[in-house]
Fold:
Amino acid sequence: MNFDPFDSAVWRSLNMLDADEAHAFDEAMKHDPLLRSAAMEMEAIATAVAATLATVQPVPPDHLEHLLVRLKLKTAPPNHLPMAIAGWSATAILAILLTLHLTGWIDSWPSKSNSTNQNASATAPGISPAATPVTAATQAPVPENRDQLKEIATLRAQLERAGSSELLESANTPGMAMPLVVALVPPGDTTGDSGETEAPGTSITRLLGDALTALTRSNPPEPADATPEPSQVAAQPIAIPIYDAARDLGSLVVHDLPTAPEGQSYHLWVTPKAGAPPVYVGSLPEKTATGSAALDFNLGSTRVLPTGFFLTLDSIDTPAPPSVDNTVLLSPVPSKPPSD
Amino acid sequence: MLATDLNPNQFLPSGLCEDPAGECSTLIRRMSQRDAAALIELHSRWAPVLLGIASRMLHGRNGAAEAVEETFVHLWQEAREFPSHNMAPLVWAYTTLRDRCLSRIRQRPIRETSTPAAISPPERPDGPRGLSADDRRRVRAALDLLTPEELHSLEQAVFLSYSPAHAGETHPVAIKSQLRQSLGKVRTQLSRYEL
Structure:
């Protein structure tokens, strides 16, 4: 510390003393009124200089509220954001898993054990987690799969309890996100499954069951001669729109989509309500090297729950509304109207 | 010729940051009685300028809002002890904020003593500063007497750019001499203003 106490008052007010020097100064100040007066004077000058030179900043809107909550002078408002984030995260994971499952990528994962749990089949609909128990002979899934399994099972249970009518209500509740997830199908396969009529609200649970099955299944290596050549299996295009009506945020994920011819591209149309004409939402990039792409979209209102999605292949500049001539994929048409 | 002796007996007090109407002191007294409205009022008066000071000290808004919040928490919790500090309300808030910012700086890795990054958002010219308009004029007049180098070094020091982040770090003698001279000039001018 500087021998001159008044100089020390300067350094103390400007915080240029190390911890030991500052402590010694503070102790000396207690017994020396002149030193204390000098220190107070320097502090006032430093304060005034700082307040004059600093740029006044706009205070964040929630700063005061956060302070009051921290001091327990106000109760914290309920936070729906984690639920919304969890819903979106789970849906995004499901969409990715479903895409990977449908493309067979998950099937190529190395077998974890000689599991006898081979009754799970991707073609059998309505498989619930209880039908494919993880037996003792099956190795436990890796940690990331366990988290995914939990999320899928939770979301599936919620959807099974909710039913389609609750989905409609929840989708427009502020702060709550119940994203609409639809697997588009080719025209003619309007039920979403080969020749099988589905009850309303079960198509999504079926998708969840398939994704769950893909994670819990442990397939033994198939005989080489039974494995179809990739060229012999026509890649089915996959298009899954995911839409959160509560926040008017949507995303269309496509995979294995044939490259659009020159001058054409894929367009997304949406019917905002039953019986309404389709509304143009957006177009996919003109060329996608791998046939995979994503399109973010919104409908301009948080009070719209689409009743149908259409993916058309048409002119880039003047796409026509969906018709039998240009529609490539569309959302399954329910065989029965949803019960109220 | 300006004297640079800092002996308080030869200079009138600057009277800066005083609370002549006692408004802020009253608010702090009400805070000591757990009056939340007083805290809200004080927050509206001081938060913008304290946030600006913290942003300069921490070289950005990252952490500045938290430092200001911690300051108000301390003011609320120690409001009963305020009279014993024998300092102006704004000085008390400033020293509290400075300690919070110093703690954050000490927790950061060693940084180069280069020119700090520019602080952004634009100033609100009519925003509350905690200082009276007269005090600001006086300080501006005093700072205008400094050379650019003196003003720069004083500014760096006030906003903790010269603070020892680690034990044993020392500052060049030239910087200390310059600071002593610049602060002496400011104090002299402020004291003369009183006359």
Chain B is about 60% helix and 0% strand. Chain B touches chain A through 75 residues (CB under 8 Å). The helical segments of chain B are 23-32, 36-57, 64-77, 82-85, 89-107, 133-143, 148-158, 173-194. Residues 36-57 of chain B form the longest helix (22 residues).
